[in-house]
Amino acid sequence: MFLGEYSHALDEKGRVVMPSKFRAGLDDGCVITKGQERCLYVFPMDQWKNEAERVLKLPRTDRRARNFSRAFFASASNQALDRTGRCHVPEPLRIYAGLSRDVTIVGVADHIEIWDAELWETVAAEADEYYAAIEEVLSEGGI
Predict the structure, then answer these.
(1) Which residue ranges make up each domain of the chain?
(2) CATH architecture of 2-116
(3) Which whole-number Å values give the CA distances from 121 to 19, 63, 127, in the listed order?
């Protein structure tokens, strides 16, 4: 399980060191693809298979589903960590996510997200506000 938030930097070749706590979960390799809100999703191979099956179940007759599938699979890239725990992030994915040198790596239980550090600050603040509001509703039995 991937948990926590870590600050790292992309090197000049587009590689990022994965947090040491995440490396065992990526021993068999991973797939990096576009995520929502301009982040990147990193799936360990076993979870990638589950996620791919879920996307493949979307109705091909729905234009939104077709576009989602195209973006999701066309941008996907098989990767392996090198001996120092670095993972290469292909240039088209770095461009999509607007990655600068400083990135934030976030564990989201079954997958990892890679964010441009500045964008992550904004998204995390918004998520915290949303989380706090939901907590109020949950404590009142509203959901």
Answers:
(1) 2-116
(2) 3-Layer(aba) Sandwich (3.40)
(3) 19, 33, 10
